Amino acid sequence: MPPEINSASSSNNSCVVVRDSNSKMDLKLNTGFHHAEKKMCAKMATLHIDIAGSPNSPCPFVRAMNRNSRSSRKDSSIPPTLAVTITLPQELSTRLDNTNVILVDCRSFMAFNKKHISGALNVNCTNPCFRRRLEKGKTSVGDLITSEEGKAVFRSRSDKEVIVYDEDSEEIGNLPANHPTSLVLKSLKKEGTRASLLKGGLKEFEFYYEGLCDSALRKPVINDGEEPPSPTPDSCRCPAIPDVPATQLLPHLYVGSQQDAENLDLLRELDIDYVLNATVTLPCYHEHTGIRYKRIAVKDNGKENLRCHFEEAFEFIEEARLNGKKVLLHCHAGISRSSTLAIAYIMKTRNWNMMKAYHFVKDKRSIIGPNVNFLGQLTSYEKTLRSQNLSSCSRQAQRSRTSSPAAPRFGFPVVNPET
Asked: Which of 125, 213, 331, 393 is flagged as catalytic?
């Protein structure tokens, strides 16, 4: 049925009443348009022209009726905007030591490691796959916490309040429905958790309270990433190497510093016969003693490509393992370069993703902090390993079921790190 258009007038203004016979809805329009335009609309209705099917019609009455018709077809089941309490930076600054508050960082793993509010837990929700699973209720916020210790803290939250933040969001209404912060808050609400949003995110909080923020990454050195220069009378003293001894990550793998590499007695005590030197300038101190050395000459900066050396480093480590020997990876402080090589090696040999390998090394050697450049290379390497794994699975599926078992992935055996 075509819509019925009736015109009427009053002493003050003119109006047109549009009745849609399908939706049974009347739309009364107060207008200042000429009577001839209303007459034209009425004539269109008389000629049985379906003006509701003309969304771009020049007639203002038709466009208004179309808007009304579209709104009547909207799904009335769409939930209202999520109501979320806002926490101000000033308020959070006084509650960081409160054991009844859990702070959740919704940014990427790399952004979190670069800087975060003290005590925050990182939720890996920037990954599209994890976002979809969270949106569909197939996983929970606790499952996406990036550290095992953090997961334990989050799961024991009971009636604690959770304060969520990202980079700079002011309020939930400004975010897309599939934004990580929106999804985390909605999921927490569904779980019955008291949750609020930190106004302005890390950016605003850091502006006022930079001292309450932590960085898991070492501050860059000033001489293009290589070892600090020797102090001069006119310069301040260089920061000392952290007093952390060589750390055993695997039965055959240690990560340490320049001090560890210099100490022959320590190397003998730890039964280390292979040393990988990941610096440009530090010497291979004890070559004359029979210790086998390998140098990977890289600087610790935002330009160096360490990933291109991964395979040669892995071959050196595997040579030591297959000979029943132990190897020390070292750079200047055992923080960035050597830890990056160790993380990559564990990713490959243990078939672990970057975050799991990172936290495994971090739990054993708390001072590690690959620079942002190296973290990006580890992330890229993870994608390469995943692609190789998929290709390997595809090839194995094409092999005969009666063929001999396939070789271990990447040619290295997968061994429990604790054995």
From this structure: 331
